[in-house]
Design brief:
heterotrimer; A alpha/beta (about 325); B alpha/beta (about 350); C alpha/beta (about 350); B: about 350 residues; alpha/beta; DNA polymerase, domain 1; Rossmann fold; nine-stranded mixed beta sheet; two-stranded antiparallel sheet; 13 helices; 14 strands; C: about 350 residues; 10 helices; about 20% strand; P-loop_NTPase (chain C)
Chain lengths: ~325, ~350, ~350
């Protein structure tokens, strides 16, 4: 949205005369218009000489706003969109898949929480390999800790036939981007949004982007969080919404990682980023690892369609012994 | 609002939004002159804003079928080939090198921590010497930056280790001469010392300032291949009362190290102290700076005593399995613990 | 237990309600537990506060199902209101699958309790009924306050279009009202060049939202149910015993002696607070609900702050939805002046 005069080009009714009337009530932009009581404004317009024209202008403005609004969907339409466009993607890990009833859902933001070296990055890389191999999807991996390792991803590829060609095919579907601050993060995501939109126009359907990984989102947000201003939290919320928007509109599964911080004296830990972030992700999974036997435990902290805390399952991550 | 995500000063952001420029598309649709007039900013400011907005909307691949969706993104296949070629800095202890996948990895931030006297500084000095091993000897032929916060760097010790390193290379050349043709060692221990850039920082503000300056410094001294911070913790354990602020400052610093490591393809080695941590009803030793910090590094190596022997344990790594190996600190530097049985490998 | 009580209540009150509906035009209705304590009528604004996750969206879904279900269908009693539900999703994480699953569950449940068939395999839900219910659920998502404002400005026309198909909108749900708090707070700090312009500040935005909703409620008879996630860390003692003792003493003492301080840090501007007529607070119970053969489920405690009720409901969420539990509870008999019913007061062990 923009200053009112930008609208004149397409809507002749919003002429200088109408804008003057609006300006006299403190309305210069579309946002100002939204903040005003339109009945009141119409009543004011009534008193003017060119009342009809002004009221027509208000109606045109209202219809312009309505065009921008998202359509009202009913339950069946929602369900149809879900069944047609939003599939579940296998995370490559049987334990996690059965816990999540199939895996990561497209359109949803899934958060992995866990202490250091609990297997978050491993989970992300395994999921990337799985989506690229089994779902023929593209993966966009945003790395903030230089921990993306193509060699490790290659190890997660399961298929045995024609290993080298498969390897190349799978790996070239995964793109990695390093981001070290939140502003670059916004640039990257907005660039991605533009790219995806142009892909939709060009009908690029083969190998569409299906998984977006951010490892880790907390390391980008922690430096700006806290302090007196609300800037940090506002950016955090904006980032969350941008990710959710991307996920919903382009049917992408978004996977982000978050770390844990100590909570009080008890030695317990809790997810970082605080209370506000809690209402951003659709699904929150807590990862922990027993260092004695390298068993991984995944538990649901929050899920949109499953009761939280319900299932706790122990899985053994495919060991990375063959790495060397 | 998209405008609020742009890296602008709050006054300019306020002006933009109150003039109705809340979305990037509304900004990029006008000329800089119009924007400057509407928003009441200077033309050059308007030009900068426009550049920013256009960059974001145009940063996607316009050529349609490019392999990456966004400029700057690399695909994993290319990265795989690159990773194979990535050099590693030897620790002069082959057992340790083995669990590290060949040495300290360039482009990673590696944190090494342990109790006092375990040999953290020794590893730091060893790495700043080893990074200079010439390419023909399987090294990197690079330079080192040593950031000393505790005052524990000893130049005599560095000279000792450098001498041992040169001797090893000469011995190796002698061995190679018998069988193949090999180049002569031209490096002198003093040259090695010359290629260690030493910074002594005495407060956390100096430390932050230095980290901010490193980008420029390294662009000017291109061959820097390792940055050692000994220790990252020291000033942050003493001068900070506000723990939340400490977390913020540290995590920002960690991201800067990440950026350096990636941009210049160099290894960042952060040495850390230990602290006691109360978990599950008992006190345990853990690396200092808390839980948030523990996520800030790519790799984490913990040094500990096992009886009389020193051990290193890979606590965290995205690409390496967790494993441990023993090492000793000798007069000549870091070596395998059973020093008589094996010779130092440099290839 | 609670569910049956509520059901029984609805049935026995039937004639009185019919009379009321004749007299008042719009009747008060009761929702399923845990919102069963207070009857709601058009014009009421219910706010459900709790940190995340405390099953707030779950409660909305459950209430929505009651609203979209018909009262009876093909001779089977479903006890619904047969009205439209408008769900404004500001958190953008509504899962339609959950709605669908729970609706199916409710349809089956009602069918089972009404039609006594021996053959279990014959119990299927009515597809036609299911579709018509789902179609009564209307959904909109907003990614920022400006979108919410434009939505509310144009909502009246859109609701009218939908109502042309038959049912009236009964409930407007907002999940959750504080979602854009921080982004709006940021724009509050913006400098404005002219004095007579309304700034995009948090107070102005919320004020306009409330204004638009009031206008909407003038033309449509609506109940508004909004959730609100606490955005500040809980600073109050989490020890449940403390809180229970205080509410316990209220039972026998002076109810107004209880501090008027809400058990969370209020962050919504006063215009919203004045708009709200009913307040509910939910928090996580410290101990988990254990049942045989199942894993630990988190238990939640629900408390009415406005009107202030002395009872605290303890509930869990399982696959079928919200279940009120009375385990580990001690029943205290207490006659409330407003509702002559037996209240069960839950005391944690």
């Amino acid at each position: 949205m923009a200053p009112l005069k930008h609208l004149e080009m397409e809507n002749s009714i919003i002429d200088a005369c109408f804008r003057d009337f609006c300006a006299s009530h403190g309305i210069l932009t579309v946002e100002d218009f939204l903040l005003h009581d339109l009945y009141e404004l119409a009543a004011f317009a009534e008193r003017e000489a060119n009342a009809d024209r002004l009221k027509e202008g208000i109606t045109v403005m209202l219809s312009l706003i309505e065009v921008k609004c998202r359509p009202l969907l009913n339950g069946m339409e929602l369900l149809e969109d879900l069944q047609r466009n939003k599939h579940t993607l296998s995370s490559g890990d049987n334990g996690a898949d059965s816990l999540l009833q199939g895996g990561l859902r497209e359109g949803q933001l899934t958060e992995l929480v866990g202490p250091s070296s609990s297997g978050k990055t491993q989970f992300c890389m395994q999921a990337s390999a799985s989506v690229a191999e089994k779902q023929d999807g593209r993966v966009f991996y945003i790395d903030t800790g230089n921990s993306f390792c193509a060699r490790r991803i290659a190890q997660f590829i399961c298929g045995s036939s024609d290993a080298a060609a498969l390897r190349k095919r799978v790996l070239s579907r995964i793109s990695c981007h390093t981001v070290y601050d939140i502003y670059t993060m916004f640039d990257t995501l907005q660039g991605l949004e533009v790219a995806l939109r142009s892909q939709v126009q060009m009908n690029v359907n083969e190998y569409r982007l299906r998984l977006l990984v951010v490892d880790s989102i907390s390391s980008l947000i922690t430096p700006i969080l806290g302090g007196s201003g609300s800037q940090g939290r506002a950016l955090m919320v904006a980032l969350g919404y941008l990710l959710k928007k991307l996920a919903h509109e382009h049917n992408i599964a978004v996977l982000v990682t978050n770390h844990t911080v100590g909570a009080g004296e008890s030695g317990k830990t809790k997810p970082a980023l605080g209370e506000t972030w809690k209402s951003i992700p659709h699904v929150r999974l807590m990862l922990s690892r027993d260092h004695r036997n390298s068993n991984c435990t995944i538990s649901i902290l929050k899920h949109t369609s499953m009761p939280s805390g319900k299932t706790v399952r122990t899985i053994t991550r495919k060991d990375n012994q063959q790495c060397l | 609002m998209e405008t609020s995500r742009l890296p602008l000063s709050s006054s300019i952001r306020g002006k933009l939004i109150s003039a109705g420029y809340t979305s990037l598309s509304s900004i990029s649709s006008v000329s800089s002159t119009d924007l400057a007039r509407d928003v009441k900013i200077t033309e050059s400011e308007a030009f900068e804003i426009l550049k920013m907005a256009n960059q974001i909307s145009g940063s996607s691949s316009c050529n349609g079928r490019s392999s990456s969706l966004v400029n700057g993104a690399r695909n994993a296949w290319d990265m795989l080939n690159e990773e194979e070629a990535l050099p590693r800095i030897t620790t002069s202890c082959s057992d340790l090198d083995k669990i590290l996948g060949g040495g300290i990895s360039c482009r990673d931030v590696t944190e090494i921590g342990g109790v006092p006297g375990i040999g953290k500084t020794q590893i730091g000095i060893q790495l700043s010497v080893n990074v200079q091993i010439p390419r023909e000897f399987g090294g990197l032929g690079g330079k080192a930056i040593y950031i000393d916060t505790e005052g524990s760097f000893m130049v005599e010790r560095a000279l000792q280790i450098a001498q041992a390193c040169v001797e090893d290379m000469e011995e190796y050349t002698g061995y190679m001469h018998k069988h193949f043709k090999a180049s002569q060692v031209q490096m002198k221990p003093r040259d090695i010392l010359e290629n260690i850039f030493y910074f002594r920082v005495c407060s956390y503000t100096e430390q932050i300032a230095l980290v901010n300056h490193l980008d420029k410094f390294i662009s000017e001294n291109k061959d820097v291949k390792v940055v050692i911070v000994d220790s990252i913790t020291f000033h942050f354990r003493q001068d900070f009362d506000d723990l939340a602020q400490r977390t913020r400052v540290l995590s920002e610093m960690a991201l800067k190290f990440m950026k350096l490591a990636k941009k210049f393809s160099l290894a960042v080695v952060l040495l850390n102290q230990v602290t006691t941590k109360y978990t599950e009803g008992s006190f345990q030793l853990a690396l200092a700076l808390g839980d948030s910090w523990s996520h800030s590094c790519t790799n984490r190596v913990i040094l500990y005593w096992n009886g009389d022997e020193r051990y290193a344990y890979i606590d965290k790594s995205p690409s390496l399995p967790s494993a441990s190996a023993s090492y000793t600190v000798t007069g000549r530097g870091l070596r395998n613990s059973s020093s008589s049985s094996k010779r130092v490998k440099m290839m | 237990m609670g569910e049956h009580e509520a059901r029984g209540w609805i049935r026995s009150d039937e004639t009185a309600k019919q009379m009321l509906s004749r007299v008042l035009g719009d009747r008060a209705f009761l929702l399923l537990p845990p919102l069963h304590r207070v009857p709601l009528r058009a014009g009421n604004v219910v706010e459900i506060t709790g940190s995340s996750p405390t099953a707030k969206t779950q409660i909305l879904i459950q209430a929505a199902i009651t609203c979209i279900l018909p009262k009876t269908w093909n001779g089977v009693h479903y006890g619904g209101l047969e009205k439209l539900v408008l769900f404004l999703d500001l958190d953008c994480r509504f899962d339609v699958l959950r709605l669908s699953d729970m609706l199916k569950h409710r349809l089956l449940e009602a069918y089972q309790s009404n039609v006594k068939t021996q053959d279990k395999s014959k119990i299927v839900y009515d597809e036609e009924l299911y579709v018509s219910c789902m179609k009564r659920f209307l959904y909109l998502r907003c990614y920022d306050s400006l979108e919410l404002l434009s939505t509310l400005k144009t909502l009246h026309y859109r609701i009218r279009l939908q109502e042309a198909c038959g049912s009236q909108v009964g409930v407007l749900m907002i999940d959750s009202i504080g979602a854009f708090h921080w982004t709006d707070r940021l724009s509050s700090s913006l400098a404005l060049d002219k004095n007579n312009r309304k700034s995009l500040s948090l107070t102005n935005v919320v004020e306009t939202i409330v204004q638009e909703m009031k206008k909407l409620m003038q033309v449509h008879s609506l109940v508004v149910i909004a959730t609100k996630a606490t955005i500040y860390e809980e600073k109050y003692p989490t020890n449940e015993n403390n809180r229970n003792i205080s509410s316990h003493s209220d039972l026998f003492g002076n109810p107004s002696s209880k501090a008027q301080q809400p058990p969370f840090r209020e962050f919504m501007p006063s215009s919203w607070q004045a708009f709200v007529t009913h307040k509910i607070f939910i928090r996580k119970s410290d101990d988990h609900h254990k049942s045989l053969g199942q894993q630990n489920l988190s238990a939640y405690l629900l408390e009415w702050l406005q009107p202030q009720l002395s009872s605290i409901d303890r509930f869990i969420v399982d696959d079928s939805g919200i279940v009120i539990v009375s385990k580990h509870t001690q029943i205290l008999f207490h006659v409330s002046s407003s509702h002559a019913v037996w209240y069960c007061h839950c005391l944690m062990t």
